[in-house]
Amino acid sequence: MDEASPVTRAVRAGIDSDPTHGAVVAPVYLSTTYTFESFGRARPFDYSRRGNPTRSVLADAVSGLEGGAGGVVTASGMGAITAVLHATLTPGDVLVAPHDCYGGSWRLFDAMARRGLFELRLVDLTTAAGIAEAVAARPSVLWVETPSNPLLRITDIAVAAAAGKAAGATVVVDNTFCSPVLQRPLELGADVVVHSSTKYLNGHSDVVSGVAIARDAALAEQLVWWGNCLGVTGGAFDAYLALRGLRTLHLRMERHSANAAAVVELLQDHPAVSRVLYPGLPSHPGHEIAAAQQRGFGGIVSLELAGGAPAARTLMESVTLFCPAESLGGVESLINHPATMTHASMPPDVQAAAGITPGLIRLSVGIEDPADLVADLRAGLAKLA
Ligand code: PLP
What we know:
By secondary structure, the protein is an alpha/beta fold. The chain has 14 helices and 12 strands. The protein folds into 2 domains: 6-246, Type I PLP-dependent aspartate aminotransferase-like (Major domain) (Aspartate Aminotransferase, domain 2), CATH 3.40.640; 250-382, Aspartate Aminotransferase, domain 1 (Alpha-Beta Complex). The chain has helices at 6-12, 53-66, 77-88, 103-114, 128-136, 157-166, 179-182, 217-230, 236-246, 249-268, 287-293, 308-318, 348-354, 370-382, and strands at 70-74, 94-98, 119-123, 141-145, 170-174, 192-196, 210-214, 273-277, 300-305, 323-324, 334-336, 360-364. It has a 7-stranded mixed sheet with strand order 1-7-6-5-4-2-3, sandwiched between helices. The longest helix is centred in the C-terminal third of the chain and has 20 residues, at 249-268.
């Protein structure tokens, strides 16, 4: 299995691994605790916060897909980020993060920095000047999110990782938007990959979970240690569901990308749309880098409506297939207004600095029939004329 392709390994993770009954599907181990083999002699698993067989299968599967040495499966993406911050930063250290990262990540970085747990510098990592600014801050951790949420800005992972490493930083990439099917940051020089596996890895909008994977075994062990110490590890049933989702990840990512391209085609020429943000568009400033470091452009499309906030409201109230909801990466299509939904935790000045405008809409394009999705958006946009 170790030599099999990432696709095969994801499909087969934990399959036919049950020594007791020969169950084809990996069993869900719900027991919180495990008997000791003998006095003072624990088994590989003793208590489910520290380790759980079902969670281990998922951690190994994602680690294999990312090309890592191992890592921790957490109860949410924020749990994974929390574990990474604790494993890598101490007071006095500098964390450099993108100025337009996911709002929840920004909130955590900001809140921990305000407590004096580290110093936070927000920079635009998509530019050479931003990378230089990042390096000058002598960061202990350089945080990359590409494509970024919700503006789909692209950071050159290899360039950022080389600069970060030269400055002595641990380089972390939030790979939530691409999944390892479309992008493998560890191969490009990153040290750690984090995911909100609530999104594409699980893919069915029925599990909140996270994963942090390290390239190096010692750091992977630290992530596992902090996951247990903080108590942020994920539940067994969630791991089982995420594992089930992971088996179809490669198929879903292909369809998400194809459907997003169909939606972009409609939006591009529409008079109600002033700007389409999608790395697959040759006009996107990060297109060439995305084409080089990604194996597809993914299912997230953002757009600016010429009519600003009122137009955003009308569109969200008009579409019927795109559900007005936060999150992304599920098989169903969602529509989100970052300024009032996912990124509402950012104060208006931080939103403005990040480029989140009142007319910005983020679509998570699902795997439905693309003709239906295009028709739904076309009808909604017609209301803005
Ligand atoms: N990172 C990114 C890029 C996200 O979009 C999200 C959630 O939207 C998170 C991290 C946090 O993940 P979770 O909601 O699973 O805690």
